[in-house]
Amino acid sequence: MMECKKALSAEEVQNDISKAQEWLRKHGSAKASSKVAGREALEGLVGIHISNKGGSKVATLAKVASETDFASRSESFSSFVQSVADAAASNSSSNDDEPVDIPTFMTTTKNVDGQLLSESLNDAILAIRENIQVDSISIMKPSHEHSIFAGYVHGRAPNSTCGTSAAVVEVSPISNSPDNETKTEQWEEAVKKLAMHVVAAKPTYLDPSTVPEEAISKEKEILKEKMADSKKPPEILEKIITGQLRKFYEGVCLTEQAHMVEEGGPKVKKFLESLGLEVKGFRLMGMSK
Predict the structure, then answer these.
(1) Residue 34: per-residue pLDDT
(2) Model confidence band, residue 289 (pLDDT cutoffs 50, 70, 90)
(3) CA proximity to 184, closest of 226, 213, 222, 146
(4) Which residues are 184's β-sheet partners?
(5) Residue 97: is its pLDDT beyond 80?
(6) CA-to-CA distance for 119 and 63, rounded, in angstroms?
């Protein structure tokens, strides 16, 4: 009641009810934000947006943190998370190779209702009364004209499209065969399963060629230390290390992993090749990553 009286008596409002409502919205959000600022936010949700339409192909992930699991499971929170992921898809100025500048993104990007995301965030804080932080946003743009995007959300909140972790994957046909269009449905299903695999297996790199030399050198050093007391000839040790590196790649590279969703656990690269596909990229995001 006191806040309503204060709003109506504000100099810029002058008893105008519509202006008073706007005043309450602005000042209430600011007050709520100041109260929760700095409080630890370790819970939350991840939302995704996938579009495979013509020239607007894009895949996005948005990770938003809250203080409690109870708040992150609310409809207000999950709706906000999804709105951030959706808005990221329409942000054509973002570079696929560069991390999204969150503060700039929030103050310059609008949701589907035309509201700035920074204002939408304040509204969510006002409604939930917790510290809410947009932690990270990832935008994938197609690397190939015929690329297909798909995603998977794990641990979904009730009545929500968002969950505790999510992955998006990009694949493209190996060849431009005329009958590719007849395979679209089969391919989309395969990519969805691959996204499920990414969430479960948590690969770090796409393929061996993308593993940094520093990581490879470190792994070699570890293997050499393990065999330091071995009396095997150097050439034999080198072969052993090469074999162990293959196992290393099978653990951290998506293309080399055993597919955890497809029957028989075929190697991801070989399975996709059997469908006429190759994986071009992936993104994984979760509350623990």
Answers:
(1) 44
(2) low
(3) 146
(4) none
(5) no
(6) 18
Q: How far apart are CA 150 and CA 173, in angstroms?
A: 14
* Phi and psi torsions of 50, nearest 5°: -125, 130
Which residues, other chains included, contact 239 with Cβ-Cβ below 8 Å and sequence gap of 6+? Answer: none
What are the DSSP calls for 179-213, one per residue?
GGGGGHHHHHHHHHHHHHHHHHH--SBSSGGGS-H
Nearest alpha carbon to residue 167 among 213, 207, 136, 200: 200
| Predicted pLDDT of residue 22 | 60
Here the tokens at position 99 are 């991390």
Helices in the chain by DSSP H: which ranges? 2-8, 17-36, 69-72, 75-89, 102-108, 117-128, 184-201, 213-226, 234-252, 268-274
> Rounded mean pLDDT of 264-271?
97
Mutual angle of helices 117-128 and 75-89, in 10-degree steps: 170
173, 178, 181, 187: CA torsion to nearest 10:
-30
Integer Cα distance of 244 and 48 in angstroms: 36
| Structure-block tokens of residue 157 | 């909140």
For residue 24, the SS3 value is helix
Count of positions (residues) in the chain: 289
